[in-house]
Amino acid sequence: MPSPGALDEVPPELLRMVLELLSRKDLYNLRLTSKSLASAAALSLFHTITIWLGLKSLEGLTGISEHHHLSQYVRKIIFCPLRFVEFDDESEYTKKLKDWLEYDSSSLNSHAPSYGRHLSAYKSYMEAQKYLTKHAMDVKILSRALRGLPQLESIVVDPWNDHIGSTEIHHAFGTSRLGDFLTKDGLHALPVLIQALSALERKTRYFRIGEDEELWYNISRNSTPPNHLAASLPTASFPKYPARLSGHALARTFSTRDRYGYRAAFRELRTLEITEVVNDD
Predict the structure, then answer these.
(1) Which residues lie closer than 8 Å to 189 by C-beta, 6 or more apart?
(2) What pTM was estimated for this model as a whole?
(3) Closest among 84, 50, 242 to 169, alpha carbons compared
């Protein structure tokens, strides 16, 4: 096997082709071998960043934007309008949770621990979500992080990808089957993104709402199947929250009143694509 020193001598074009074949895990490991390979691997690792409006996700983006070197590699942000449902009545949430635990045969032997873990995680995420919403903290954190990415050119809003945020949520809840507790309707998340973009001095040139095929390809290359968010209960008796971006979110965000500043956000836009949204009835 060639040493890292030998790999340093490989022509940049050939090295780039090799790195494109590696999984993210392999790229992370490669960054530990030498400074030159760390820089080369970073081109692939940090070219595209996936985020949602979870506190940890925003903290991760902030960490990259504040890093002198890594912030220079980011060219594209894939934004998922994922958000936890805030139930009007807490009893509705607890009923859904208990029914899910009874339905899920794998949790019958650990009903109480699963219930406690889920309840604790949900309350923690809701507290963080309310904190971010209050005084538009999510807008402020996101806009500050985006300002630290000088090479950012493209924004993709992808509500079709169920992997974004899934690993973090699975770690917190012990399961990825949380579809009944989540929404991707974009009614809050999309205006937050547009407000954050409008505050940037360097405007986005490419904006797309739709499935990002490159991200799906990169996910499929990983040897270990990743987590993905799924519905908790496959029955019609429970309320269904939008799993995809709604038409109401688009109408609200891009209204003629320009309440959220999309004209400023798209002042230098060269390409705008919208592939599909949920038909609101």
Answers:
(1) 52, 53, 79, 81, 82, 83, 249
(2) 0.85
(3) 84
